[in-house]
Amino acid sequence: MRAFPRFMAPVAAVAMAAGLMAATALPATSAPAATAEAQTYIVLYKGNGVAAKSLAAVEQAGGSLVQNYPQIGVAIVKSDRAGFAASLKKSDAAVAGAASTAGFGVQVKDDAGDAASADEAALEAGATGTGSEALAALQWDMDQIKAPEAQAINPGNQSVVVGNIDTGLDHTHPDLAPNIDFSRSVSCESGAPDTDPAAWMDIHGHGTHTAGTIAAAKNGIGMVGVAPNVKIAGIKSSNNDGYFFPEMVVCSFMWAAEKGIQVTNNSYYADPWLYNCKNDPGQRAIWEAERRAIRYAQSKGTTVVAAEGNASDDLSHPTQDLSSPDYPAGSEQEREISNACAVVPVEVPGVIGVTSNGNKGFKSYFSNYGVSTADVIAPGGDARQITPAATNGRVLSTWPSNAACGRPVTDATSGAKYCYAQGTSMASPHVAGVAALVVSSGVTNPGAVAARIQNTADDVACPTDMSFYDGFVGQNSQLPQVCQGGDGHNSFNGHGQVNALKAIGG
Fold first, then answer.
1. Distance (Å, rounded) from C-alpha 254 to C-alpha 184?
2. How far is the C-alpha of 237 from the C-alpha of 465, rounded, in Å?
3. pLDDT value for 110
């Protein structure tokens, strides 16, 4: 992955302020005027419930219900009325906050579209497989976390389902098809669940790549995932351009909770701002809605694993945000931030935060980090850590046949397509796969799963020579990268590199 997802336009505060002005200008008996187009709103209620009179108030204010999540006191609403949020808050005392999500989202950005050099292309052309899991020879990442040894003992249980909250997945890919749970796959693009397989089909590529790392089948072709016997559900939480929006994220976690999905992988950011500041009313409403959805999934037994991000920033000591909002293009603005500002989902309590390393064992030059956010480190690739095993430094995984990839590899037996990419997006699914193996071994409580993964990780100390990171300052902080902590836990590596074999008791 390249600069990792960034958040989109900062219209929440503007929309809220405009709404208040419009509301005060209207006579008490007037209906709100229509806006140019309908917008989606997150409506947060003060209690974990949504009363019938509150739904009636939504309609009276000019809104229509998209989806109601009374379990967490959240409703997804559409309205074309000017000042809808302000009008609703004024008319319904049960509303804690309401914010438009128009233009809010995170576009997944990776380097899969960057073309390989001639030398790389020559190396990879010779890697096309013809035998049983022939491309497994290119999976340095699996060897690094001892996944093959773990699979020999426990390849995962088919009763365990990993929900891959991403851009969907290609359910026709022959290395994924045997393990896809169609009954638990869904698109949340509208904020409401849509189970039509065409709706959650991945045409972007990102979700198919992360899915393969988790659970590509051991079926005689291509590659193999960390947990090749578990089931995987595609939970599409973006549009086809790779933008994630708050209503999609809430829907995704509620789906995972209600469908009994034991593990979710989250290789994205989910808020309108890179750092979501809870002292802003609009941002706080969205943060709280997403936090409630994640907490609800955890309460239902879902272990949540999340990527740390690719901006070389210390998430535990944020000072400024230069990249938000980045939609539409040119909207970025500099703002001072503090620890009142957080990233979703990685900074939600109980979420397993994953940093990225390369084949030489160093934290990837691009990976975010933080002593309070990094729980473990896993292979996400690093184009600067070239070795005989990692000829381009990146991670190989499944890819849709019709999506662009600059570093493709084809399995000669099946014709299936695979792609090299790098990023914390590639690291997180390794840990989600290990979590699925842990659940398969009988440890099911999310807190216990997280503890097992952290306590069995291999200690990795802070680098003694930080020159590897010279020239790669935090994209937002503009500060040099600094590793803090000891061997047992530090800001670069968390509790250490995840070890699949030790995690299952091997």
1. 12
2. 40
3. 53
